[in-house]
Amino acid sequence: MGRFTIIVATDVKGGIGINNTLPWRLPEDLAFFKRTTTGHSIVMGRKTFDSIGRALPNRRNIVITRNPEWKHEGVEAVASLDAAAALIGDQEAFIIGGAQIYRDALTQAQTLLVTEIAQSFECDAFFPPIDKGTWQEIAREAHRSESNGFDFAFVTYRRRNT
Predict the structure, then answer these.
(1) Which residues lie below 8 Å from residue 31, measured CB to CB, with a gap of 6+?
(2) Structural domains in the chain?
(3) Rounded CA gap, 13 and 75, in Å?
(4) For 21, which DSSP code?
(5) How high is the pLDDT of residue 161?
(6) Cα 37-24-66 angle, rounded to 5 deg
(7) Which residue among 66, 69, 119, 151 is least crowded, i.e. fewest CB within 10 A of its CB?
(8) What is the pLDDT along the chain (162 residues), one digit of tens a residue?
(9) Hey, how many other C-beta atoms are within 10 angstroms of the C-beta on 7?
(10) What pLDDT does residue 123 have?
(11) Alpha-carbon distance 63 to 43, whole Å?
(12) Distance between CA atoms of 83 and 78, rounded to whole angstroms?
């Protein structure tokens, strides 16, 4: 079965979105996301896909939906995370949201790529707290956004061998 890597940006409270949109504008994170996921499979929930509005280019787009009739050009629809894992075989795939898909994928993922934004935003969707007993931070790159002046870090976590 496939290897899942979660890729997410969060504020200091674990916020990831509001009204199905990103609550911040962080071009550096969007560039990191594009650089990291291009050429790979990406897995998302249907609401996340709707918020993007189109299949992302140069990636295999897989959408998890409960609606068996749902279809969109350039997208493979599946009913579950397990069905997505079966589709990707032994390849790596990036889980890109939303909140429910992240919660479900946390039990299967081996790596978390988290952009930690050192600021609080109004959010109605949240990433689950990262359990330090399960996840070990293995890399951190601190940055300051030139465009909006807030600090952020690209942080990599690996699942601990238990």
Answers:
(1) none
(2) 3-159 (3.40.430.10)
(3) 32
(4) B
(5) 82
(6) 55
(7) 69
(8) 568 999 999 999 999 999 999 999 999 999 999 999 999 999 999 999 999 999 999 999 999 999 999 999 999 999 999 999 999 999 999 999 999 999 999 999 999 999 999 999 999 999 999 999 999 999 999 999 988 899 999 999 999 985
(9) 22
(10) 98
(11) 6
(12) 6
H or E stretch covering 50:
helix 46-52
39: Cβ–Cβ under 8 A, 6 or more apart, which residues? Answer: 58, 59
Residue 76 amino acid letter: E
Residue 63 CA from chain centroid, whole number: 13
Q: Six-digit token pair at 120?
A: 């609080």
Q: What phi and psi values does residue 121 have, to the nearest 5 degrees?
A: -130, 160
Measure the CA–CA gap between 117 and 146, rounded to whole angstroms: 14
State residue 7's pLDDT score: 98
Contact in structure between 152 and 145 (CB atoms under 8 Å):
yes
Phi, psi of 87 (to 5 degrees): -65, -40
